[in-house]
Amino acid sequence: MKNLLFRVVSALVAFVIVVAAVYFGKKTGAYFLCIFVVVRGSFEMARMFFSNAYPKFAKRFFVFLATAFFLIITQEPLKNIASFAFVFAFVLIAGLGVVFHRFFKDLDQVLTFVAKSFLGLVYVSFLPANVVWMIQANNGLEWLFCLLSVVFAGDIGAYLFGVSLGKTKIAPALSPQKSVQGAVGGLFFSLMAALSFKYFIPLAPLYILALCGFLGGLLGQIGDLFESLIKRVSGVKDSGSIMPGHGGILDRLDGVLFAAPLFYLVATYFSL
Predict the structure, then answer these.
(1) Residue 132 CB contacts under 8 Å (≥ 6 apart), including other chains
(2) How would you classify residue 178: left for phi > 0, otherwise alpha for psi between -120 and 50, otherwise beta?
(3) CA–CA separation, 228 vs 234, rounded Å?
(4) Around Cβ 248, how many Cβ atoms within 10 Å?
(5) pTM for this one?
(6) Pair 154, 190: CB distance under 8 Å
(7) What is the dihedral of CA 6, 186, 251, 241, to 10 degrees?
(8) d(Cα 38, Cα 250) in Å, to the nearest integer?
(9) Helices (H), 136-248
(10) Are 182 and 236 in contact (CB under 8 A)?
(11) Contact 43, 26 (CB under 8 A)
C-alpha cells in the first residue's frame, strides 16, 4: 500500500511538472524536458552498462557523447545530418576503444564497451530526438500528449487486466509479473487513448489514430520488456531512483522512447 502511494504521488508530481513546462514554455519547455531526460537517462544507462570493472572514463565519456549527440541532431538546421552524426559517433566510439584498449582488462571488454556505448546512444539520444522532431511539426505538442497518453494508458490497462485476469505469463525470464491478458488489456487502453485525440488533432484520420494506439501501445510494451532485459543483465532492480515507486527516468519512459519514432513519422505526414 505504501509503495502504491509513492507511485501515485510521484506520478502526479511528474505529471504536473510536464504539463506546467509545456503550458508555460510551449515547445521550448518540452525541449528542455527532453534534455533533462537525455542527461539523466545517460547517467542511468552508464550505471547499468559500465560497472567498476570498466575504466572510469567509460561512464563519463558515454554521458558526454549522448548529451552532445542529442543537442547536435535536435537543432533545426542540423536535423538532416543526423545520419552522418550517427555514423561519426560510432567511428568515434570505436576509435576511442582502440586507442585506449590497454585500459580495459581484455579485448572482449573493449568490444563490449563499443557495442554498449552505441546501443546506449541509440536508446538515450536518438529515440528522445524523435520526440523533439515530432514536437517541431504542426500540432507537435498535441502529438506529444497523444504519445504519452497511449503509453501510460497502456501501462494502466496492463496493470488492471494483469491483476484481475492475468494467468499466462508473457516473458517470465524478463518480467515475471507481465501476462498475456495484461498485454491485451494494455493495447485496448492504448487504442482508446489514441482515438480520444481526434478532437485535438482533427487532420489525423481515425484509422491513423487507431494504428498509433495499437502499434504505439505494442512498441511501448516492447520497450518496457527491453528495459527489463537490460536491468536483468546488469543485475539492478531499477535504472535509477529519481521517481519513488517507479525507479529511474528510463524505468518510466522506456515505452515512450520506443514508440516515439512512430509518432514522429505520423506527426510529419498528418499535421500539414
Answers:
(1) 30, 31, 34, 74
(2) beta
(3) 10
(4) 24
(5) 0.93
(6) yes
(7) 10
(8) 10
(9) 140-165, 180-195, 206-234
(10) no
(11) no
Half-sphere exposure of 37 toward its Cβ, with a 13 Å CA cutoff? 28
Q: E-assigned strands of the chain?
A: none
Residues 71 and 39: their CA atoms lie apart, in Å, by 11
Residue 71 has a pLDDT of: 95
Which cell numbers hold the place of 81?
A: 545530418
Identity at 199, one-letter amino acid code: Y
In the chain (272 residues long), the average pLDDT of successive 10-residue segments reads 61 81 90 95 94 90 95 86 88 95 94 96 96 92 95 92 85 87 94 95 92 96 94 86 74 94 91 56
| pLDDT at position 52 | 87
Cell of 258: 520506443
Beta bridge partners of 179: 169
